[in-house]
Amino acid sequence: MASRTYADAVAALNTLQTNFAIVDAIRNSGKGMNKNSIPEMVEWCRRIGYEPSDFNRLNAIHIAGTKGKGSTSAFISSMLGQYRFPSTRKPERPLLRKIGLYTSPHLRYVRERIQINNQPLSEEAFARYFFETWDRLEEAARAKGEPPDTTAKPGYFRFLTLMAYHTYMSEGVDTAITECGIGGEYDSTNVLVKPTVTGITSLGIDHTAMLGNTVEEIAWHKGGIMKASAPCFTAPQPPAAIEVLQKRADEVPTKLHVVGRNPLLEDVKLGLAADFQKINASLAVAIADAHLVALGQENRKRQDDMLPPEFIRGLEEVRWPGRCETRREKNIAWHIDGGHTLESIEVAGSWFASQIPPARSRKRTRILLFNQQTRDANALAKALHRTLASALQDEQPFTHAVFCTNMTFREEGYRPDLMSMNTSAAAAEKLDVQRGLAETWRGVDPQTIVEVKLSIEEAVGWCKDVAGVEKGDAEGEVMVLVTGSVHLVGGFLEVLETGKA
Q: For residues 379 and 342, is the Cβ–Cβ distance under 8 A?
């Protein structure tokens, strides 16, 4: 048999995506999360050769939350990664060797989701572990007399979770930082039996069809990752959410710690910009510290009035593309954040406002590049306008705005890693959401020049034309805020780095 490639793996993986009609039916049914998902996931684990207790070897750190899960996980991975390297003192115990980081969604390449030592799997490694998982599932299906097609495999995210655990077990990973997909209680990552520590980032209203409409209902789901073997650390939450989390902790039982903003971080220049990242970093510090204690890695002097140098280096060196990131080209500064909930859009807006230089005699051109395909896009757009108008004391925060779909390129369409079958292709082609966004923006800011484009490539090209990048006639640096969707940001980075706009 010819060797199967990364492209083959991505093509096969995309067959596991649920089509839009099914997703929409689930969303509209009001049935919420699948309460049988964990028993089902345990069965999938067994089919590829593992009992959930086998994953105890991974010394997992399990992270749930609405906002900041990826950033917090990245901070933890970067800090712990510093303990892989020799220190000036001879350690009493072996240092960490391999650190896994499992996150979602990805930006440009699906292999970004499964990292080891802060590097995505190579294409070769991804293909190898993908098809090992794929083949084991097909063999198990045959043994049970089931058809070995996609019906004998879990869906997209579940499959990747299985594959991540298989990868980390095969690679001998000794710490696996694992980010939940949606919720916690019924999330497919929650087959972990004995994590060293769990963490819950800031909560907000998101995935309401699955998790509920109140912060209390959402807190209940997120608190489902708590385990008796592990302390749980949470960012500050609304009182009602803390009450639910505390009740869940008492039932487990485990100790719940609320982690406020750590004053020791005030003088640390985080690798992730934006002041709000200090909350995520504070939570990450507490979790990383508890993890090291659980592993007996106390080859450092612990002091309450200072951070270990390894922590400081990790916090400064962390990189997480698409989160409060700035990229510059001739005459244009792209300010990029994948904010996609009401709260995260407001945070992205505040961060962008903080990047704008003090007012000068002549108003500068500022452009918004926005999309949100599946949530209340118009409410998010209004929240962004409200946040920036307030921060800038200017009812016209942008001179120009362009709304596009998440399609990467005009001619080629989606690149395989960025294909999504969970949104309506027909609605995207008709630009229904984008035209609605344009009308909404014109309603709150009639002076803004508004445009609608089918693809990200065309939207980026329009921004460059406005900025005069090609002509070189722009006055100073034009600022562009790219936000509203992680999928938009991923496609945007693909367009920017391939230079196709």
A: yes
Backbone angles phi, psi at 369, to 5 degrees: -115, 115
Longest dimension (CA), the chain: 75
- Enumerate the known binding-site residues: 104, 179, 207, 323, 337
Q: How far apart are CA 222 and CA 190, in angstroms?
A: 11
DSSP class of residue 326 equals E
Separation CA 272–CA 319 (nearest Å): 7
pLDDT digits (tens, 9 = 90+) for 465-487: 999 865 544 457 899 999 998 89
Per-residue confidence (pLDDT) for residue 340, from 0 to 100: 74
Residue showing tokens 């939570």: 283
Digit-coded pLDDT (tens) for 404-415: 999 999 988 888
> Which residues fall in the annotated binding site for Mg(2+)?
104, 179, 207
Q: What is the C-alpha separation between 421 and 430, in angstroms, rounded?
A: 16
Which element (helix H / strand E) includes 328? strand 325-329
Instruction: Show contacts of 289-295: CB within 8 Å, 24+ apart.
Output: 290/196, 290/197, 290/231, 290/233, 291/59, 291/61, 291/76, 291/80, 291/175, 291/196, 291/197, 292/80, 292/83, 294/59, 294/196, 294/197, 294/230, 295/59, 295/96, 295/175, 295/196
Alpha-carbon gap, residue 352 to 391, rounded angstroms: 10
Kind and range of the H or E run holding 314: helix 309-317
Residue given tokens 């993986």 in the structure block = 13
Q: Range with the lowest mean pLDDT among 137-146, 302-311, 312-321, 354-363?
A: 354-363
Determine if the peptide bond prior to 120 is cis (ω within 30°). no
pTM of the model: 0.91
Residue (of 330, 400, 324) closest to 364 by Cα position: 400
Q: How far apart are the two ends of the chain, measured CA to CA in Å? A: 39
Question: How far apart, in whole angstroms, are the C-alpha atoms of residue 372 and residue 360?
Answer: 32
Output the pLDDT for position 357. Answer: 82
pLDDT of 31-54, one tens digit each? 666 788 899 999 999 999 999 999
Residue with tokens 């209390």: 216
DSSP string, 53-80: GGGGGG-EEEEE-SSSHHHHHHHHHHHH
Residue with tokens 């299906």: 141
Residue ranges for the known binding site for ATP are: 323, 337
Taking only the tens place, the pLDDT of each residue in 357-375 is 876 534 689 999 999 876 5
Burial class (CB in 10 A: 0-12, 13-18, 19+), 150: middle
DSSP 271: S
The C-alpha angle with vertex 338 and arms to 195 and 475, in degrees rounded to 5, equals 150
Task: Give the CB-side neighbour count of residue 207, counting CA atoms within 13 A.
Answer: 20
Beta carbons of 286 and 259 less than 8 angstroms apart: yes
Question: Which strand ranges, in their side-by-side order, compose the sheet holding 366-370?
Answer: 325-329, 332-336, 478-483, 366-370, 400-407, 449-455
